[in-house]
Amino acid sequence: MKRHRNGEIWNFESQTPAAGAGVILGLDGGTTSTVCVCLPVAMPPAGPLPNPLPILSRAVAGCSNHNSVGETAARETLQEVMAQALSKACSSRAAVQAVCLAVSGVNHPMDQQRLLDWLRDIFPSHVKFYVENDAVAALASGTMGKLHGCVLIAGTGTIAYGFTEDGREARAAGAGPILGDWGSGYGIAAQALTAVMRAHDGRGPQTKLTKNILDILGLSSPDELIGWTYADPSWARIAALVPVVVSSAEDGDEVANRILYDSVQELADSVIAVVRRLRLCGKDGGDTFPLVMVGGVLEANKRWDIGKEVINCISKVYPGADPIRPKRDLTAAV
User: Based on the structure, what is the number of domains in the chain?
Assistant: First the structure.
């Protein structure tokens, strides 16, 4: 991604009207990519959202999770994707009425406050700001804006997040790979890389993951994985190996299958923990609640359907879980 100095990123504003029709910016920022949409302010004040939404422009950039790439790079990504969306819409910051930011890595009020302070330095004083974890937008995308139920995100990272109708909330996982994003794309791929090294050393069983991962990376020996891994240990780069793990499992590899089964249990446990803490299932455990499922790890493959297996595990404990796969872009909910 091109980096800009000073205010260069906003130079396009000199070619746009000083004050145009009001717009809203909605951002969904993850560890793999960040999406920003520009919407007109003039939409129905009540009732269901129009389908499709009147999106003026859409821009995509890379990772905006500060825990993964650092605060400076994350903010550069957020600023660039917002500038691109406004430029494509022939608009400017003067026309922005609100910025709704849902970003992975926002785990504490201090994270929110830092982003709010940064946004206030970029935009005019009249702009309203809303900053949340990306799980909030993910939940809203499956419940048409109603914050009730539980969402499970399983992409590069993972998190389970829940809300009750009276506003209580709880979360599980989502602490990054060191503190335990097991079941995430990074977690699955990291376990596969570890399994390859264990097999190479003679500390673990032989596995088809060795040949399959080396082939996809163009390497000739497991020893070369050390250099490849630490040359750029970004979470998304590691997580990109998940399809190799899935295909190896579908080809009958026991090690790959064990990694996936363990990951299914980890993901299910995250949801179960949130549901239990919030009592989303009611006092008797039988109430129905929405379970929004989001992320590439949960998508079905030829024979391995991680999302389906996760639902099966959860349903054994909480049969009232009502799985929802959102069709709407997450940025429509922020």
Answer: 2
The answer to whether the CB of 298 falls within 8 A of the CB of 191 is no
- 9 Cβ neighbours under 8 A, 6+ residues apart: 79, 80, 83
Query: Which of 161, 31, 99 is closest to 334 using CA atoms?
Result: 99
Q: Residue 283: is it exposed, middle or buried by C-beta count within 10 angstroms (0-12/13-18/19+)? A: exposed
Contact 137, 331 (CB under 8 A): yes
| Three-state secondary structure call for residue 277 | helix
Provide the 8-state DSSP code for 154: E
Classify each residue of 182-201 as buried b or exposed e, where b means 16 or more C-beta atoms within 10 Å of its C-beta: bbbbbbbbbbbbebbbbbee
Q: Which residues pair with 130 in a beta bridge?
A: 100
The answer to whether residue 333 is domain-embedded is: no
CA 182 to the chain's CA centroid: 15
Under a CB-based contact definition with an 8 Å cutoff, are residues 136 and 161 in contact? yes
- Do 173 and 295 lie in one domain? The reply is yes
* Rounded CA separation 140/21 (Å): 26
List the domain range (segments joined by +) for residue 13: 8-132
Report the distance separating Cα 150 and Cα 169, nearest Å: 9
What pTM, to 2 d.p., does this model score?
0.81
Domain end: 85, 104, 132, which one?
A: 132
The pair of structure tokens assigned to 241 is 């190996």
CATH number at residue 163: 3.30.420.40
pLDDT digit string, tens, across residues 66-124: 888 888 999 999 999 999 999 999 999 999 999 999 998 888 889 899 999 999 999 99
What the block records as the tokens of 25 is 């910016």
Q: How confident is the model at residue 175 (pLDDT cuts 50, 70, 90)?
A: confident
Distance separating alpha carbons of residues 279 and 184, to the nearest angstrom = 25
Query: How far apart, in whole angstroms, are the C-alpha atoms of residue 307 and residue 317?
Result: 16
Does the N-terminal peptide bond of residue 323 adopt cis geometry, omega within 30 degrees of 0? no
| Boundary residue ending a domain (84, 113, 132) | 132
Residue 265 in any domain: the answer is yes
